[in-house]
Design a protein that fits this description.
With about 160 residues, the protein is α+β, with helices and mostly antiparallel strands. About 45% of the residues lie in helices and about 20% in strands. A three-stranded antiparallel beta sheet has the order 1-2-3, with no helix packed on it. Strands 5-4-6 form a three-stranded mixed beta sheet.
């Protein structure tokens, strides 16, 4: 692991503990060159062979970072922490990994993300949905906002399996 302060590749693990219900391992490391400490997180990844089937039928390798970046754009200037975004992605990955083997449809990933994001931040959800649902005009956005407001007025449904 490269030290974020000096770039050296020599460190030792000072502390290690499970996080996020056992889905992540948090490690405190100390650089042996400069002596500074930093934190790393390890999490279960989809295999390199997992493919995402796009709407047009093409297949691309699954990319966790792409999902995080998309969510970060939707959550831009919203009170949603990076940790919340990563936890959301962890949940989606865990569920998708449990139910799919080599291929997962982008629509299924989008739906799983959107449902969790709706509970996390409604504005970020509408931003994400505008891309995921491919809104054509302002009426589509207004319809979605009305749906969000209606669901917020009623009791939120319990999150179940989305795949």
């Amino acid at each position: 692991m490269l030290c974020p302060y000096c770039g050296e590749n020599r460190d030792k693990v000072v502390d290690s503990r499970g996080a996020q219900e056992g889905q992540t391992i948090r490690r405190r490391r100390e650089c042996l060159a400069c002596g500074k400490r930093f934190t790393t997180r390890e999490h279960l990844e989809f295999s390199a062979q997992t493919q995402v089937v796009k709407r047009d039928g093409s297949r691309v390798p699954y990319d966790r970072q792409r999902m995080i970046e998309g969510l970060a754009k939707a959550c831009y200037k919203r009170p949603v922490s990076t940790e919340s975004i990563e936890k959301l992605v962890d949940q989606v990955e865990e569920e998708a990994l449990a139910t799919h083997e080599r291929e997962i449809h982008s629509i299924d990933l989008g739906r799983a993300i959107a449902e969790r994001l709706k509970a996390l931040d409604q504005i970020a959800y509408v931003r994400f949905a505008s891309v995921y649902k491919q809104f054509r005009d302002l009426d589509d956005i207004l319809d979605e906002v009305r749906d969000v407001l209606a669901s917020a007025a009623s009791d939120p449904p319990e999150q179940g399996r989305l795949f």
